[in-house]
TrEMBL record:
Highest taxon, organism lineage: Bacteria
Species: Petralouisia muris
Protein name: DUF1320 domain-containing protein
Length: 150
């Protein structure tokens, strides 16, 4: 996981938790926190899978040591995943979550294209697949000279 439940919950205000939970209002603070934590774990898991999907061709994922920038965008995508469960109202405060999500996706696309470097080594091993096609063969067996007289 590239971020924690606690980090994501710090980004969400208390009144937004009720919106995220949906139609059911949970008055008990502990029960509401448990419910939102469960939803948050699923949102983080989805965000990490989305990040890995963008970066898998360039880097070995999941990262053993998460770069700070990936952690930041994992939180942004996780919060968006939570908020978008009930729909995003683009004229309201939810637009901020959508903007942060779009910025995260643009960043991940640029990293995947190699425009932005996140400061870790690229995938180890053969890089021919990432750079294009490469073929090797043995030397030529038949030529005009070797075929003379046949």
């Amino acid at each position: 996981m590239y971020c924690t439940v606690e980090e994501v919950l710090e980004m969400i205000k208390g009144d937004m938790m009720n919106v995220i939970i949906g139609d059911e209002y949970i008055e008990d603070e502990q029960e509401r926190t448990e419910k939102i934590a469960t939803l948050c774990e699923a949102a983080i898991s989805d965000a990490c899978a989305e990040i890995d999907g963008y970066l898998a061709k360039r880097y070995s994922v999941p990262f053993r040591k998460t770069p700070k920038v990936i952690s930041k965008f994992a939180k942004d995508i996780s919060v968006y995943n939570l908020v978008s469960r009930t729909g995003i109202d683009e004229s309201e405060r939810e637009k901020t979550f959508l903007n942060r999500y779009n910025a995260a996706i643009k960043f991940l696309l640029d990293v995947a294209k190699g425009i932005i470097d996140i400061g870790i080594d690229e995938k180890s091993g053969s890089s021919e697949a990432a750079n294009g096609f490469k073929m090797k063969s043995s030397g030529r067996v038949f030529s005009r000279d070797s075929m003379r007289g046949w």
